[in-house]
Every structure is written in structure tokens, then in C-alpha cells.
Amino acid sequence: MWNKLRKTDQFILIFFVIIAGLRNILVFFPAIITTYYSNLIYPKIHKLQFLLFNWVPFPVSYLLILLFLGYTFYLHFKIIRKNKFRAILISLSIFWIRNLMIIYCLFQVFWGFNYARLDISEELNLDKTEITFENLTHEIKNVENKLLQIRSTIDTNLLYQKLNQKQILEIQNEMVKSFHSNALKPFQISKCNFLFPKGILLHWATSGIYFPFTGECNIDGGLHPIQEPFTIAHELCHGAGWGDEATCNFLAWVALKDSENLFFQYSVWFGYWKELQYNLKLNYIDAYKSYIQTIDIHLLTDSRLVRNEMAKYKDYFPEMQKRVYDQYLKTQGVGEGIKSYNKMIDLVMAYQKSKMN
Cβ distance 249 to 275 under 8 Å? Predict the structure, then answer.
């Protein structure tokens, strides 16, 4: 059987076994992953990707996907045209097994190992904080007051204007300063793209995506401006070598919560406020119903504007998307799956507590 495989297929199979083996073993040694992959190997890979693709005036992700689709279509056509049914099934099976192994290996080497790195709470020495009803409702009120304070001093027209490249660079600079001040390894600069047509990600219940094969942070062009700084900062954290979703939300909040740019501040506090509301709704529905009746009219208006913008892009397959993404996260070592997003509140509260001590 082995001798019947082409040399290329033998190499791909060996490479796959090595990478899959390392990925499943090293998940139990996050300190090794953090030291040798996240802090040593990955930054070099990402820097090379940035040098190769940053000058390209469009998302290279699009080009790579189109090339792969074209290559796939061509080979399928070639196989189907020249073979009988049984030979077609065998050839197509070999094609997909081979290519899925290649994609898996490249994904892990280019970025995926970051899912197994040390938890951010360990890197920042944060103690676990229990979320009780009392501290949750107290936090929501504090964040609401913070948003109203920012809103009272900001030019509110900024809340409805799309970000430009200069502002994205400002966000990157804020991330660099934040990583340095929190003693994290140097922040990795990433290429950022707004994807069009609008809704290309939102229709799949996704606002942004990091594409490991090109090192690009991609954000849906249909987002409401209020969502953009928080989403961009989140994706930049993926580019900086963090896989966990809640960690990226948390690091985005840490970087922009005290930014000189009040628009950036408002965006991350608004995103955190929404996380708190979701947690309240999930665990204390009656308290949530009472709370939303008391929300300030200005914040209520902003919430409705964001919600109305998102309503333009209905999920194609909402339940399927949740299940697939939940399973994807779990296969990458995120045991809680999509529920891990809620961990942002734990991290923020623990961080605030550490700064008070």
C-alpha cells in the first residue's frame, strides 16, 4: 500500500502525522508552545507574511481562495471527464484527503498552534474572579456610566463614520503600547482589510476573520462604525498570536479602553457592555428585562442603530454555523467552544481587580 503512494503523497502523509501528533501532544505543554512557537517561530512566519503581502492593495485572502477554487474545479472537471464512476470516486477521495491534510498542516504551522499557548490569565498573573449577580449588575451600571461619560465629551458624528487606514494604524499603535506596558511579547503588526460585498462574513454570523495563510485580518465592510475599532483590535490580537476569542476581546479592551481617541474608547466599552448584557440575559432573564427598561436613551439609540445594521445581513444557516464553529473551537483545544466568548467578563474583572491591588 505504502509503495503504491506517490513520493509527494508519502511526504504529505508523514508531514500530517508529525504535525497532528505534535498538536495533540503539545496541548498538554502550553508553556513549551508559548516559549518556542508563539514567541519564537510564529512571529517570524507572520513577519514574512506581512512583508510579502502588505503592499498588495486588495485582500490576498480573496486571491488565494479563488486560486484554490479554480484549481479544484479544473481537477474535478479533468477527473470526471476522463474516468469511469468508480475511478472518479477514488480520484476525488484521494484529492480531498490530500488537500485537507495539507490545509490542516499549513493552518497549524502558520497559526493554529497558538490555540494551545498559555492562558492569558497565567501570562498576566490574573486571579479567577467569580461572577455573581451583584458584581455583574454593578459592572453593567459602571460601564453604562463610562459610556455616557465618553459620549458627553466626544463628537458624536464620529460614531457614525467608517474607519480609514490612518485610524487603523492608530489602533495598531495603541496595541503596540498596550502589549509593551503589560509585559507581553512584542505585538505583531498585521495587514487589515475591509471585505466587500458587505455581509460576506456577517451572513455567516462572523464580523471578522484572521486568515492564517496570508496573515491578514479581515473585517466585514457591513459593520456599523461603532463596532469597527473593537472588531479590528480583536482580529489584530489574532494576528499577534492569540487564538482564544475571549482573550482577543479582552486584549482589545485593554488596549483601547483608555485610548486618547474617544471613538476607540467608546467602541470597546460598548462591546464589553454588550457582553455584560448577554451574560445577564443568559443567567438572570428577569433582571435583564428590568434593566433594559432603564437604559439611557442615547445608549439605547446606539444599540438600535447597530442592531438595525446587523439585521440587514441575516444568517444563512444560523444553527449550522453555531454548531460548526463550536466544534471547530473544541477541536482546537477550546473546551467550552463558543461559550468561551463569555470568559471576557472574567478576564476584565480580574484585570480591574489586579490594578486595584
Answer: yes
